Each structure stands twice: as structure tokens, then as C-alpha cells.
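Quick one: C-alpha cells for this chain, please?
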Amino acid sequence: MSEQSPNRIYKILVISAYRTILHTRAEAELFIRLAKEGHMVDVITVQNAEYKEQMEALGMRVFEDHPTKKISFEFIQHLRDRIRKFDYDFVHVFNSKGLTNAVWALRGFRSKLIAYRGFAGQTPWYDPMMYLKYFHPRVDHIMCVSKDIEDILSRQMMSGRRKLTTIRKGHDPAWYRDIVPIERSQFNIPQEAVLVCFLANNRPFKGLRYLLEATHLLSPDLPFAFMFIGQGYDDPDTKRAMDASPYANRFFTLGFQENPLPFLAASDCLVSASTHGEGLSKSIVEAMSLGIAPIITKIGGNEGLIEEGVSGWVIPPKDSNALAAALSEMASDENERKRRGEAARQHIHNHFHIEQSVEDLKALYQKLLG
């Protein structure tokens, strides 16, 4: 192999399900920008992927035959044929079905296999499935979306951190410039309300119970309205807890929204009350990119997202009192709310920009081939 140089043109194959631009943008744009720099980037994805036309316009080959099974001998053979033909430097895999096939397909090839981990759940060393994925010896490196995930994996892997690198999925401020907020009146939300958005599917670790408990501690004089976006709010226990809140008549449950950004843009604050399990929360980054200062919990995946007292509010997890205090402070001072919102927008621009993610990825490439 030729000596590594900063100007080397890389040959890259990406395996990921780019169904919609909205939900996969931060990931797909990494490779689009590499293609614009002149690197050879091919993509294996699902049929009717929204990104196909844009990618092909840049000269990227798009193969619409993403595996549908954990082990597909047909896909493994197709993948081996492509690797043999194009001699990729790197094969990036962003999901489980892609990875369990790729570890077999890459046997005997020089291509570096880079897996991705974006969820902070446990990956115990004694779980046999981990050895068909992240702990498989054919995996050369794992790209972690947050330092917390890197820490979790390092405690389970015999190689420690040697195969781990944290590369955040950066965003571009330009993506948010033309977002038009919803008309509150369309959903009977009072125009003068301080609108709090809870954007998450209702799962225990998302911490909805602590937000509902916090509403019992808020002054009724504060003009709150609460908007819940996501699935699972029709659960009987959840409905009972929501109906018992003194703010029940100011709850607006809007269900799943294909594009939540206009709803988020109409809000005054985003609350993320997660107790654990977050990688790099997309909704928090989106809110901050829209100039909305969020209230978040101090958990591993949120580390570095907010400067407490500057670009948002950071509270302990599972602490309804702290959440109520942050909500009260946010709602009581409009100028402070807006000041922190603008600081939040600038913080994402300075520390979570996609251009930095591209540079971090190229640095990883140099490390693996150097």
C-alpha cells in the first residue's frame, strides 16, 4: 500500500438505510461531503431512498439492495463481488443487519471494516450476539457517536479503546434557516403560552413521569402549555398520569409527526428528561440549531451539548423538583430564555458542526491506514 498522505483519495463503501433525508441527514451528509471533496463513495441502501438522486448526481454509486436478514448468503456474495471489483479502503456499516453480514463478506479482503454505535445501551462481553457484531475480530474499528458510548464499549472489549473513536454526527446551521413554525392556532395552542415541547416516543427511559411530576410543582400563574410529539401516549397508565396533572387542560398530544421541526420551531423550550440510554440526542441538537435553549438531564450521552447557565439548563436525572425549578426560571424570564437560545445556536455551530465531523472522520482514516 502506498504511503499515507493528506491528499489521498479514499475508496469508501457505506451500508445504511437512507430512507428519508430528514431522519438520516447528519449521517448521509458526512459521505456526501467526502464525495464532493473527490473521494470515491458508494452506498448500499434501501429501495426508494430519498438521497439516491442527490448522491448519484455527485457520481456516487447507489445500490438499493440493503440486507433484510441478519445473515443473507445472497447479500454476502454480492458484497464480496463489489469489494473484489472496487477494492474499497473502508466499509462503513451503520446498522445491525448490515454488520452481521459484512463481517463474513469481508473475510480475506484488505478493506477496513468500521462499525457504528449510536445507542448507549449495554453491550455485555458475555452476550454471544456481540461477537457476531461489534466484538467480531473482523471489525477493525467502531465509530461512537458520543464519549459515553465509547466508555461503555471500552469496559467490555478486550482491546479497550484501541478500536474505538468518538465522532459526533455534526449539523449544518443552513439546514434550519428555512424551517417555518407551525401555526399554534391550528392545534388550539394559545399564542401567548410558553410552549414546552416533549419530543420522544414514550419509553420509560425518556423520563416522561418526571416531567408530569414536575407539573404538580409549578405555579399555576405561569402560562405554560405542553406539546407531546411521538408515539405511546395512549397507554392507559400514561393517560391517567397526564389527566391527573393540574396542567392537563394545557396538554396537547399530537402523536407521531413525520417532520417534527416545524413543531419544535414553534416551541419556547424543549425538555429532554431521559434517565439514561441516550447517544447524541438528535432532538436536542435540532432544538439548539433552531435557537431554542433546552432543559436536559446530566447523563453521559448529553455531555458537552449544553453549557449550564449559558445555552440551556442542565438538571440531575430523575429529579422532578429540579425540572420544575428550571421550567419556572425559563418561563419567568423571556429575555433570558432568548439569550440562552441564541447561545445554544452558536454552541452547535462552534462545537457540533458537520465540517468538524468530516475532519474527524478523515483523521480516523489516516490512523487506520497510516
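DSSP finds twelve helices and 13 strands in the chain.
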